[in-house]
Amino acid sequence: MNARLNYFASPTAGKTLKHFMSAGKTLKDSPLPAATQELVALRVSQINGCAVCIDMHTKEAAAAGETPVRLNLVAAWREATVFTEAERAALELAEEGTRVADAARGVSDEVWAHAAKHYDEEQLTALVVLVSFMNAVNRLNIISQQPAGDYEVGQFH
After folding, report:
1. Which residues contact 111 (CB under 8 A, 6 or more apart)?
2. Could you tell me which InterPro entries the record lists for this protein (predicted)?
3. Looking at domain 33-143, what is its CATH homologous superfamily?
4. What does the pLDDT read at residue 70?
5. In the chain, domain spans
């Protein structure tokens, strides 16, 4: 499969993606726990069907020490016992923040309150920006049909 667009060869994409990569670095350095960030990025990408992001975040999480059991259960986190309450709150917020068209209401007050029990304002800010960021990146990759499977850990760092 070949991508519809080569973002690395486009001057417009190059200028734009430089800012995206900078935003991603800022998020990595945020006080939101790294494991939570990878789980959220993976779940948003699963919902959107972004194969290249699923490939990337699965490999990055594994390299950072995430267990295969937890990675394999992200899609079924509600029924899985391997996630903390804080991680579950983040995954729930990520799902509602991603499925805005399906839910027609965005993130509910209940989901927000549950997340706010586990994360301070700076962490919540990072979580909201991460969900939005991942949705944007997923769309860039899905629209241009970026192929998955060849990602190597640290490739974009």
Report:
1. 89, 92, 93, 96
2. AhpD-like, AhpD_core, CMD-like
3. AhpD-like (1.20.1290.10)
4. 97
5. 33-143
